[in-house]
Design a protein that fits this description.
Layout (H helix, E strand, L loop, with lengths): L15 H17 L14 H8 L4 H6 L20 E6 L2 H13 L9 E6 L6 H13 L4 E6 L2 H6 L13 E9 L15 E9 L1 H9 L6 E5 L6 E2 L9 E5 L4 E5 L8 E6 L6 E2 L8 E6 L7 H10 L9 E5 H7 L21 E5 L5 H13 L7 E5 L29 E5 L5 H13 L5 E5 L13 H13 L2 E4 L17
Parallel strand pairs: 1-2, 2-3, 3-4, 4-5, 5-6, 6-8, 7-9, 8-10, 9-11, 10-12, 12-13, 13-14, 14-15, 15-16, 16-17, 17-18
Helix pairs in contact: 8-9, 9-10, 11-12
Length: 496
Amino acid sequence: MVIDSGGGGGGGGSGSGAKKQKVDEHDRCEAAGSDAIRADRISALPDELRLHILTHLPLKDAIHTGALARGWRDLWKRRWAHRASVEVHLRSRDDLRRELDALAREPRPRRRLDRFSLIVDIWNLKSSELRRFLDYAAECGVEDLHVETLQGTTASRLNFHLPLSSPALASLSLRHISVSKMYHKGARPFHALEVIRLASVSFRREAFREMMALCPSLLTLDLRCCSCNGLVFDRLPPNLRSLTIAGCDRITSLDFVRVPSLRSFRYSGCFSNLPLSIPRDAVLSDLYIQLYDSVSMKEWHIDKLRKSLPKDLSRLNVLTISYKALTGASVLSDDGVSAQLPNFNLHGLKELHLLMLQTKAVNLANLYLFLKTFQCPNLERLFVQLPAYRLKPTEGSIDQVREEPPEDGLDNLVMIKVMNFNWCPTEVQLVSFLLRKASSLQKLLIVSRNVTPMDSPGAPEADLSLLKEALVNGTIMFTESDNAATQPYHKAYINL
């Protein structure tokens, strides 16, 4: 069971396995959120009653309820008021002495703890003192362990290693700390450990390999802004299902050919220096790609991006992709003719989130080409993320979009949300295109600081008129605030 509120998807199979796959995909659709989702009876229960239900479940099962529906997502985090949980925040040496004395006075055998959180806000904590807290957590049979430092000097001096005996540990979270050695002599594998989340953690290459070797049951690995020269991913646990890598620019090898079980992959960072290879036989259910290369995607980058994707994307349920990756996936030749690309099957895609952080004509052309190349006939939810800052008028006119809009493929869209709309000509044309092509559209939500229709120099009058008409008849809804009830599935991974 995946101990991950975000979900990682299930595997394929035949017979009953195929039926379970359909159920899993439906659950992921509900977790992604949609105005068209039907309310279920259990989610209509009061929060207090649902929290009471969660107190009777093991931690892993409580977290897995996040796949039931949006109302259950992250609800498990609030059950600590009902179950045994300890948070220690060290703001001074006096706090340290008081907490250590309290630990020493507790009787043995230790009480049972669900969760133990240690936040260090002093610069002179010793590794031996950190070890006492970790040993206590292990003696309490803790399932969820979180260690975080708020002082940069502390993080560089402290070394974290897992306690020798933590048979119940299911989730480990580290932030702003160094890892030089993962275990002492005689350490045993952590068979219950399914989730590891590391943020701003520095570690040696050998320590990372030791960590992976000691966690054979690992299902979710989340790395953000971690530092390790020469880090390689050649020995990942064989059953890993969800992998997130954000802002880890010193990775030298990212080869998952031995992890065909991968179902969720999320990457944010530079692509040009990264040998990326997702297993060709992996069956992904969600994919997130945010590229930050300062240079344009050259042909060899484009070819590398295509080859790095699995050969079968038919079960991909949620896709978030940046405009840089759009350029790589669908490129225009110098004469404006569409490149000959393989026709990827995205027939299972239900949600598409486009990170269009530029709104030039070429970006709109690449979007059109992407929708033509990657067929998405069952797409139900579309999110378009435009630049958060106000842009200067786009150079050139709208007529310089050299790719014709696709004729079909958006018939099942029921909800569209456009964020940071600024009434630029390319943005007006994009919304107008979506209004014309989405025949089943129920609501088009536009988040903008300018909720009143404006004249947009350079935009065709027909496009502006269509927007104003849709605003009058209620098809379009303008708002200045971003409603939390209509967030994309990958919202937590944006701009990492």
